[in-house]
From TrEMBL:
GO terms for biological process: tRNA 5'-leader removal. InterPro entries: RNP4, Rpr2/Snm1/Rpp21. Its EC number is 3.1.26.5. It comes from Natranaeroarchaeum sulfidigenes. The gene is rpr2. The lineage of its organism: Archaea, Methanobacteriati, Methanobacteriota, Stenosarchaea group, Halobacteria. It is an enzyme of class 3 (hydrolase). This is Ribonuclease P protein component 4. Its cofactor is Zn(2+). It is found in: Cytoplasm. Its main location: cytoplasm.
Length: 90
């Protein structure tokens, strides 16, 4: 675990907390910051990070708060409040 990995993990937690506190702007800042850290240090983002960030509006997705989760045709479909869907096999 490198310092970059730890920073990314920490930013992920902060983004999740920001959504919980109804601070979507702050959540986006943390998500973007974490992406930049990963890019600069050439670290890949953890699977959970990719899964719980919206590709369209960069917010952090918390099912039940700003995202809906449905199971459809063997996929998990996560719908962001902005309307963007992400599908993952499970
Ligand atoms: Zn979105």
């Amino acid at each position: 675990m490198t310092i970059a990995d730890e920073r990314i993990e920490r930013l992920q937690e902060l983004a999740a907390d920001a959504v919980e506190d109804d601070e979507p702007g702050l959540a986006r800042e943390y998500v973007r910051l974490a992406r930049r850290v990963a890019e600069r240090k050439r670290r890949s983002l953890p699977e959970s990070f990719k899964r719980f960030t919206c590709d369209s509006c960069d917010t952090y997705l918390r099912p039940g708060t700003n995202a809906r989760v449905r199971i459809q045709d063997g996929h998990v479909v996560i719908t962001c409040d902005c309307g963007h869907h992400s599908r993952y096999p499970y």
